Amino acid sequence: IRLDLNICRIWSVYLKDLDDKLRKHDPPLTFDSSTVLTTVTTSGVVSTGSHGMKVGTSNLSEKVISFQIVTSDGKLHEFSDEIDPVEMSAARISLLGIIYKLTFKVEPMFNMIEKDSFPNLSDYWKAKNLKNDVLTCDSIEILYWPFNTPGLQEKNDKLWVKTYKRTDKDVTESQLEVKAASAFQSFGLKFGEHLYEYMAKHPECTPFMTNLLFNIGVNHERERILQAPDAIHYQ
Known about the structure:
Layout: E1 2-4, E2 7-11, H1 15-24, E3 29-30, H2 42-47, E4 64-70, E5 76-80, H3 85-92, E6 98-105, E7 107-108, E8 111-117, H4 121-124, H5 127-136, E9 139-143, E10 160-167, H6 175-201, H7 206-217, E11 222-227, H8 228-232
Antiparallel strand pairs: 1-2, 2-6, 3-7, 4-5, 4-6, 8-10, 8-11, 9-10
Helix pairs in contact: 6-7
InterPro entries: FAD-bd_PCMH-like_sf, FAD-bd_PCMH_sub2, FAD_lactone_oxidase-like
GO molecular function: flavin adenine dinucleotide binding; oxidoreductase activity, acting on the CH-OH group of donors, oxygen as acceptor
Protein name: 1990_t:CDS:1
């Protein structure tokens, strides 16, 4: 990983390692959009066109300034918009060969207000609400957890809405708190895996089990201020 101003040149690494390197830079750097997971590689994210949550950015591939790619003849080639924009578009969707090196555009570290809310589906799922959140938030995720209410009643069925907005305010959680929350979440995910295995064998328990997981691990409204990578990689 090599850093030069707002340019990051890397050989394929895990996103977690890249985030750590960018955070330790002086001054700290980051992406304004990325995938939720950090256990994936940069070249894998780019070659599959994996998306981020940012409203104005379709996927992480758009952050790539140049590629070095090994083609089927064993030769190393460089691609960029300056060299050939058409070939660069093909490189962004992994049509030309094996990605050897990537050059990303990064930016100074910033903080985000992360808000989790759980509105009733019947109240929230309207054009004016969706339009407002899309236009006023930097990033947004709208998720649906099956069987989140007992009895599958339409009137109290809920959505999980995560919104993100840039802010100049200081973070409200230390790195120690963020790491502790991540460790607790990992434990919860492993516990959930055992329940999913049980549900596969006893499908009649699915409504009860998924409702239990939702209320124990998800259904908690909160608002906090985090550094961008901590907010984006929330699980």
